[in-house]
Design goal:
With about 220 residues, this protein is α/β, with parallel strands linked by helices. It is about 45% helix and about 10% strand.
Length: about 220
């Protein structure tokens, strides 16, 4: 089953000045806020690509050791005719290695909003200190989506630089250097702008102001 996208996976980006790069980076990659100590739950945002699923599985032992969560939620539907993303990630993790941790798997969510909604149904709503695992370019939207549904929770991102195409990773420090990744990030910016404007995600003033400034700068460039 293919996903119907409101905004294409890639959208051709405008010419990006250093100021535009800085603003878009802040909006999409966000800024991680770290509060040490125990976290009750981990939420893993699924991915269909095995190389990135392995990156997730490699992160989890350290997360469990440092933060001692009771429950790990893994999200993501089947991709094509394959097993669900969440089940593939679970297999790579090897839950039998973590006897005291409860793993809960969603196999029907198709996007970030549904990832959170399905995890909430499975019990995420009962937790107040949550670590989420996502791609670094997806951090901003994941955080804003969780904040919409869990406004009072303490949230910490534990993210990874994804392999987006052979030989190319989406990193905070270089995404604009590669046309394919630049177009991916412009599409991500457009999603935050759209979803924030219609209140599908949390849209605090600090984010909204940066989005509006991007539009102003692009308008100035076109004159």
């Amino acid at each position: 089953m293919s996903i119907i996208r409101e905004i294409a996976k890639q959208v051709e980006s405008p010419v990006l000045s250093p100021k535009l790069i800085s603003l878009i980076t802040d909006v999409c990659f966000g800024h991680e806020c770290f509060e040490p100590g125990q976290y009750e739950a981990v939420l893993i945002f699924g991915t269909p690509h095995e190389v990135n699923q392995r990156l997730i599985a490699d992160l989890l032992p350290n997360i469990i050791q440092l933060h001692n969560p009771s429950t790990v939620y893994i999200t993501g539907r089947p991709y094509g005719t394959r097993t669900a993303e969440s089940e593939q990630i679970l297999q790579l993790i090897g839950p039998e290695k973590y006897g005291s941790v409860n793993f809960k798997v969603d196999t029907i969510s198709t996007n970030t909003k549904e990832n959170v909604e399905q995890a909430m149904i499975l019990g995420l709503a009962d937790h107040q200190k949550i670590i989420f695992v996502a791609k670094t370019p997806h951090y901003g939207r994941c955080h804003l989506t969780l904040r919409k549904y869990l406004p009072n929770a303490t949230l910490k991102g534990n993210c990874y630089d994804p392999v987006l195409s052979p030989g190319l990773s989406g990193t905070r420090n270089s995404w604009w250097e590669f046309p394919e990744i630049r177009n991916l990030m412009w599409a991500e910016f457009l999603r935050i702008e759209l979803y924030g404007g219609r209140h599908d995600i949390d849209y605090p003033e600090v984010v909204r102001t940066k989005v509006e400034r991007v539009r102003e700068l692009i308008q100035e460039q076109s004159q």
